Amino acid sequence: MSEPTRRSNFLTDIIDADLAAKKNGGKVVTRFPPEPNGYLHVGHAKSIILNFGTALQFEGRCHLRFDDTNPATEETEYVESIKRDVRWLGFEWGERLFHASDFFEKMYQCAIRLVKDGKAFVDSQGVDAIREQRGDFGKPGRNSPFRDRTVAENLALLEKMRRGEFKDGECVLRAKIDMAHPNVLLRDPLLYRIRHAHHYRTGDQWPIYPMYDFAHPLEDAFEGVTHSFCTLEFESNREMYDWVLDNLGPWETRPRQYEFARLELGYTIVSKRKLLQLVTEKHVEGWDDPRMPTIAGLRRRGVTPEALRDFAELIGVAKNNSVVDIGKFEFAIRNDLENRAPKGLAVLNPLKVTVTNWPAEKFDEIELAWWPGEPARAGTRKVPFGRQLLIEQEDFSETPPKDWKRLAPGREVRLIGGYVIKCDEVVKGSDGQVVELRCSYDPDSRGGDPADKRKVPGSLNWVEATRSVPVTVRLYDRLFMAEQPEAGGNFLENLNPDSLTLAPGARVEPGLAQIEPETRWQFIRQGYFFSDPKLSRPGAPVFNRIIRLKDTWAAKAAPAPTPEVRRDKKPKEDKPAAAPKKGRTEHRNELRASSPELAQRYTRYQQELGLAPDDADLLTGDLSLAKYFDAAVATQASPKSVARWLTNELLGLVKDEGFADLKLDGAGFGRFVALVDSGKVSPAAAKTLLAKLVEQGGEAEALAGQLGLEKVTDSSAIVAAVEKVLTAQAAEAARYRAGEKKLFGVFVGAVMKELQGTADAALVRKVITEKLG
């Protein structure tokens, strides 16, 4: 793939500082460490892009490593799918492929060393007893009765564990740290457990397997990793990471762990366990079902790796967990497809149209471009026009509302690329339903404006009835109806029953019947579609809808517009373009070339304000946007923070309205950013506050107080919220205490939602850790 764009975030700032201090011999080594117990999902895509992209950015290297320390759940199928996904995203690991199982012997020798140093012991208690003895945040733990075994006794027992002489759960190897440690995870944590299970690589060679907190830092050290990026649920594990390395060094390269916010995406589940449940209970058709958030599912749906990389860049790298608006993901998908999907004609829910003044046996072969309005992009085809046509059922109304711009009795419309037709007669079946429209056409209107320059209100997609081709069209939509499917009960109750429907009687123009699998198309006025790689056959493509042209979910959630403000617009593809469409970057470059004012800002934003080139580019693509940014920075707000909030959040709220008449002026936006940077409002609550400021104006600090969005630092309120969440998710809390530590982020997200995103995230994590013990 091409050289990565130079991006700045708190992790790259750490690396910059390390390089300046000549740490790690000037090396940057990262790793992507998936556990091969399922297919990767969109959250892993963010991690892949972060780890591989950061290594490329600093001319370092990134390892692909499989954390295969749990033989009961790991399979070769998952290993191969992960390799395929990483390559599809555009990254290669070369010779830098590792497995935790490569190091099992070295890890075992490290365990022996800890025992000999008096820092580990074999505990013959069960897991439940060990858990009970650990205590909690307000209650110190109690030493195991086996903690004072001699080194010789521990070595002998460990060797018996290694030889497989104990049953599963009969004993464990524990670190000897401190049972009164404030971090419960350091109260003599488990290092090895017995598991008689066949490993997909090592077979039955090992009956004992290292725990994650022991294996993870050692793998990093063995491989020479310099910067180990983990998601926030492992923040409390960092002390254990450091303890392992500090007590088993010295290391030629001493790795360091840094945490970032995992991707929590609205209307999406990213729990491997729950994704597996969807598959095994057949709520979906498999791991690569196009409704699944797995990389395999997104690939089969037709999403491109470029769209995922654009999305990762759009949301950036954060320090605090929050739920990302799925609209951002869908924006990245649409933005990517806009310039890669040729436009064709299709009708998904057909209504018959008879052109009464067209000769029965005559066909007109109309030449249409695959890229209308873009003459620089070659490619045309012949589309038949005849007496029998098909249009969409939804494009006709017998009793049309005000401002209706489609077909109705006595009204005219243009058939895209074809002729103007007028509805003269409506034919109904015995049940009273409309089954046919009898229309007349204007012979002077072929392919463009009619000779008499008449204007018609709208344009419709269509196909000829007898020469079009029937196809299977699978209409995919969001898998869940709720933005946070896991909140408030069983996530399966939030499944969207309409996440997959088939288009009844769908037909496409002849040119779309012979396309290759795995190609992307825009069906004019319908959406973007992908020819399914598994189901398509020569001459019989099966189309998956990747995404609609517009976000219909937002329309469902918004109140219906009043007649006074309603505006019906022609679909964008119907508007004739006078010149080839330029890319956004090319357009901004041309603007700066013709505007010394913008060019000067572009240079100043980078040299004086320290902005990344991409941010400077976006901010100088429009003079009103640049002036807005300057006004915000003039309030003494951080330029980088202003740029981040403006490009990542405000631009999405402003959309087509522009900045000149925005109720939130530049100075007010600057004060909003300064308020967030001061820590008085959490990042999650800040998004709600910004939306309100755009909607109604006002001062950020005063409005935050009115809306109750100021950061909650009252420990009693946070404790109450944590207790409520843990009571509601008692089963998940029990699994966490049993060792499923990845659930920590779920609890944090639920508490933040309970407190409307206003809580101090660090305090929330602290209280959850205390309560979970």
Layout: helices, strands, pairs:
Elements: H1 10-20, E1 29-32, H2 42-57, E2 61-66, H3 76-88, E3 97-99, H4 104-116, E4 120-123, H5 127-133, H6 151-163, E5 172-175, E6 190-194, E7 208-210, H7 212-223, E8 227-231, H8 238-248, E9 256-260, E10 264-265, H9 272-280, H10 295-301, H11 305-315, E11 323-324, H12 326-337, E12 343-344, E13 346-347, E14 350-355, E15 364-369, E16 380-385, E17 388-392, E18 412-415, E19 420-428, E20 434-441, E21 459-460, E22 463-464, E23 469-470, E24 472-476, E25 500-502, E26 507-508, E27 520-523, E28 527-531, E29 542-548, H13 552-557, H14 584-594, H15 596-607, H16 613-619, H17 623-633, H18 639-654, H19 666-677, H20 683-696, H21 700-707, H22 715-728, H23 730-737, H24 744-754, H25 761-772
Parallel strand pairs: 1-2, 2-3, 8-9, 10-11, 12-27, 14-20, 18-21, 24-29
Antiparallel strand pairs: 4-5, 5-6, 6-7, 13-26, 14-17, 15-16, 17-22, 18-19, 19-20, 23-26, 24-25, 27-28, 28-29
Helix pairs in contact: 7-8, 11-12, 14-15, 15-16, 17-19, 18-20, 20-21, 22-23, 22-24, 22-25, 24-25
